[in-house]
Amino acid sequence: MLIPEFSSLLATTTDAQCALLRRLSTLGLVYAKLPVRQLRELAPPVPAFNTEPRELALKASLLDARTLLGPFSAEMLESLATWLDQGIDKVLVDATSSEDSELERVAVAVSELPANRVVLRIPVPSLHAREVTELKEKLARLDGTASGVVFVIDSVTLTQETGFEALFTSLQALRKSVDEGFFFAVEMSAGDNSAVALTRIQEFHHKNIHVVTPGFCNGEGEQIDSVTGDGEAVVDAAQAFVQCLRTDRPDGLFTTVVADEAGVALGLVYSSAESIIAAVSSGRGVYYSRSRGGLWKKGESSGNAQKLLKIDMDCDSDALRFTVNQTGAGFCHLNTRTCWGHDGGLRALESMLFSRHAHAPAGSYTKRLFDDAELLRNKLVEEAQELAEAESVPDVAGEAADVMYFAMVRCVAAGCKLSDVEVRFKLAFVFRWLVYLTNGFRWCF
């Protein structure tokens, strides 16, 4: 699969840069290649007073996207940890060579970071049989240090004929030497022919090898240059995504599950290559209607539109999941949130409370809680105390439900959604607690 290298040079304004990053992230992980200055200066949670607004906007977009950020040197441990603590998905750490001593130095430097969020970037001058054997051994020794590698290859481009087949064979041998869940990528130039580059990316994808190279993704009505200033191709990320899919359906469509931010399935639809590209460029839920024989822009007639958050292909590359923010009555034509009926659990509570916040019946207890901050605070403290003192399973469950109700009232009163809370779990739990469990809480938070 393509891991598009994001370049701010492909967009002329701050808004355009952030929109490009958002569109690329819709399709998967994006390699945001920043200069060392920005990696250092934008790392602190509280920016310097003279930080330019465009750089603050870029940072916010990086944290909101599915970002592989780098390249960091092994000496930038403080900046690495700070970015991870704020929620960046993965960091890319440079090794200056593939020599044993250099790989050991980098491995030691990143050993205090959560391995599942660290990817190493390793230059390899060539990949002959001897080098492949040595690299297999080195990858084995890096087990537990990082969750993936990006091999940087300058000697061959994606569109080059001479030497490509030998390189492809060597990379397959290396890929097979590590676990299937290990992130394995190659960074190389796309050359001068984007059509050939797309075919090569597809070939790599079906061998579970990612390709890192400059990428773009047009928005509605936009046309981004598809070549760099040096005349090299910049790959269309949406086209690359579609190219990596496969289907055995006679109509060529892709089965698509539509889910909300919590992963709850809203319905089952179908996508075409055209509808996927339209969805990414518009940032909306766009699918293929078999009955109409064309694009179906969800909400165009019903008003129940969707904001597209991300698209993921499954492990076999033959099915899709669209994650969306559903508006209006819901996804189903029967005006239920899902095609399997109404929501339940915390999502249903959240929906009900937002509705009550806008149209609460006069005199209702929920309206009193929204209108009286002191009453709500006292109830939160009271219910939390009762939960702390509960002992039996029924009592703990009941008190926990009470706490969650009042906590959700507080969230809704502040305009905070469950998805916002889940982001905080990502920030606090994924990094801090993994560091705690792995390293005995060496970092102080």
Automatic annotation (TrEMBL):
What Gene Ontology terms for biological process does this UniProt record contain?
A: L-histidine biosynthetic process
InterPro entries according to UniProt? HisE, PRib-ATP_PPHydrolase-like, PRib_AMP_CycHydrolase_dom, PRib_AMP_CycHydrolase_sf
Q: Which UniProt keywords apply?
A: Amino-acid biosynthesis, ATP-binding, Histidine biosynthesis, Hydrolase, Multifunctional enzyme, Nucleotide-binding
User: What's one GO MF term for it?
Assistant: phosphoribosyl-ATP diphosphatase activity
Which pathway does UniProt place it in?
Answer: Amino-acid biosynthesis; L-histidine biosynthesis; L-histidine from 5-phospho-alpha-D-ribose 1-diphosphate: step 3/9; Amino-acid biosynthesis; L-histidine biosynthesis; L-histidine from 5-phospho-alpha-D-ribose 1-diphosphate: step 2/9
Recorded catalytic reaction(s): these are: 1-(5-phospho-beta-D-ribosyl)-5'-AMP + H2O = 1-(5-phospho-beta-D-ribosyl)-5-[(5-phospho-beta-D-ribosylamino)methylideneamino]imidazole-4-carboxamide; 1-(5-phospho-beta-D-ribosyl)-ATP + H2O = 1-(5-phospho-beta-D-ribosyl)-5'-AMP + diphosphate + H(+)
**Pfam families xrefs:** PRA-CH, PRA-PH
**Recorded superkingdom:** Eukaryota
Name the SUPFAM superfamilies on file.
all-alpha NTP pyrophosphatases, HisI-like
- Record's Gene3D superfamilies? MazG-like, Phosphoribosyl-AMP cyclohydrolase
Q: Which residues form the Phosphoribosyl-AMP cyclohydrolase domain?
A: 268-340
Record protein name field: Histidine biosynthesis trifunctional protein
> What is the organism field in this record?
Phytophthora citrophthora
Taxonomic lineage: Eukaryota, Sar, Stramenopiles, Oomycota, Peronosporomycetes
